[in-house]
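Moderator note: this is an archived Q&A kept for reference. The question asked for a predicted structure of one protein chain; the sequence and the answer are reproduced below.
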Amino acid sequence: TAVATRSLDVQALATRSRTFTNLKDSFLRKPDKSSAGQIDPAIAPLCDALNRRDDMFTTSSCSGRALLWIGHDIPAKRRHSKPMLRPFICHSASTVSSMLDVAQSFNVSDGSTVWLRFEPMILHMCCRDWHSAQSLVTAARTAGLKRSAVASAGPVLLRGASAAATGEIVARAWRVAVEGVERLEMPLAVDGRSVFPLHDEQSRTWLHGVVAGKFERNEAKVQRFLQAVSDPESASDAVRVDSVHSGK
């Protein structure tokens, strides 16, 4: 009986792995529907490392970016809503100066409100099981990506007796969000009136340093995370350390 039970467990886990692999292959073959049409080069090595693992895959990503946007409110993300007007987007510290040139050249006499925003890296992942999801979140937080968490339950991989053999009522994948904390949102002009002196060299230099610094800290955390996920043993160690500190 014990042998039969172990055999059922092994078969259930193998079925779960095959189902997840098919799900992963199907998703990664789909065309990129992002506005850029491709993975950001700065985060491509991390995505490649994650997708080489059998127990997870990426579903969307951004390496981190700074952008200018125009308007009083961010448009709602609805299918037929008016898109946000974003005259400049950059993904590296080397292009911050060009972004500020564009901002300085704006003619806001029409009453425009212009914002500068920085958004950190973000990854959405699908993990094969709870352990994989937990190890990924722990590795991300250890790397400094503190806004990382299991976001929701994912697709069902096994049901019924097969799922019960793994100790679960329904065996499913898990969705994980990995996100940094470096953020900035500030107005450069409000209703056609400049509220930040980009024409002043000292003020512009200060702002350039702030945005470039966010890019650099964001990139350092991405590299630490890449190192962790490239070495599965490091991720497993991080889970064990986290479990000791949490008392689990």
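Archived answer notes: Residues 45 and 217 are 17 Å apart (CA to CA).
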